[in-house]
Write a structure and sequence with these properties.
Strand order of the largest sheet: 1-4-5-6-7-2-3
Distance between the termini: 94 Å
Strand content: 25-35%
Number of strands: 7
Order of helices and strands: HEHHEEHEEEEH
Radius of gyration: 29 Å
Length: 200
């Protein structure tokens, strides 16, 4: 009887150990699956950021630079659509950017309007190959019309707005065909003073 009791106890012990091992193995599988789950490269972000970009378009259309600068980070970097990631021209710093736009307005007397806007707020979790930017941003597709004197041109532009932790615009990257803008300024002013001409 004692042997039978020990045998039953032994069987029960084996069954318990087998269940415990199986349970631990399953937990490890779940942990491994969670570890393998990648963070998405992009996620949806708050509509608030798209609203900020729309507001900046409206202010640039009115050339209300005094209000417009409130939406910009002090160390903003503004990239024009010429060259590649290493050679494209840029304006660094809010003060320099405001000065540039004031000069453009005084030099050309130009006006801008932004229509057919598509604004997509996103959170960027994985840095891009070129600019290494992460955080909240907005992909913007818009038709920009530039008028100088009695002439005008329109271009569909793609731009990327990135924000800092204070919801200020820290980076702006533009992508568009500059041909029409260059031709407009040459025709209206007789000189190639274009929207994206600046010094590095």
């Amino acid at each position: 009887m004692k042997t039978l009791f020990n045998l039953n106890t032994l069987k029960t012990g084996f069954i318990f150990c087998a269940l415990l091992i199986a349970s631990c193995a399953e937990t490890k599988k779940e942990d491994a699956a969670m570890a393998e789950k990648e963070v998405p490269m992009l996620e949806a972000a708050s509509q608030e950021y798209a609203d900020i970009v729309q507001k900046t378009f409206d202010l640039l259309s009115e050339f209300d630079l005094e209000t417009w600068e409130d939406y910009l980070a002090d160390d903003i970097v503004w990239f024009w659509p010429d060259g590649n990631s290493e050679t494209r021209h840029s304006i660094k710093g809010k003060e320099e950017l405001i000065t540039w736009w004031k000069n453009w307005k005084e030099t050309t007397g130009g006006q801008m309007t932004f229509t057919n806007n598509t604004l997509l707020p996103l959170k960027v979790n994985t840095p891009s190959n070129y600019y290494k930017l992460v955080g909240t941003g907005v992909l913007a597709y818009t038709d920009i019309t530039i008028s100088i004197q009695d002439k005008s041109t329109s271009v569909r532009q793609h731009s990327v707005f990135m924000f800092d932790e204070n919801k200020k615009i820290s980076h702006v990257l533009f992508y568009y065909d500059r041909t029409g803008i260059i031709e407009l300024t040459k025709s209206a002013l007789g000189a190639p003073v274009v929207l994206d001409e600046t010094e590095e």
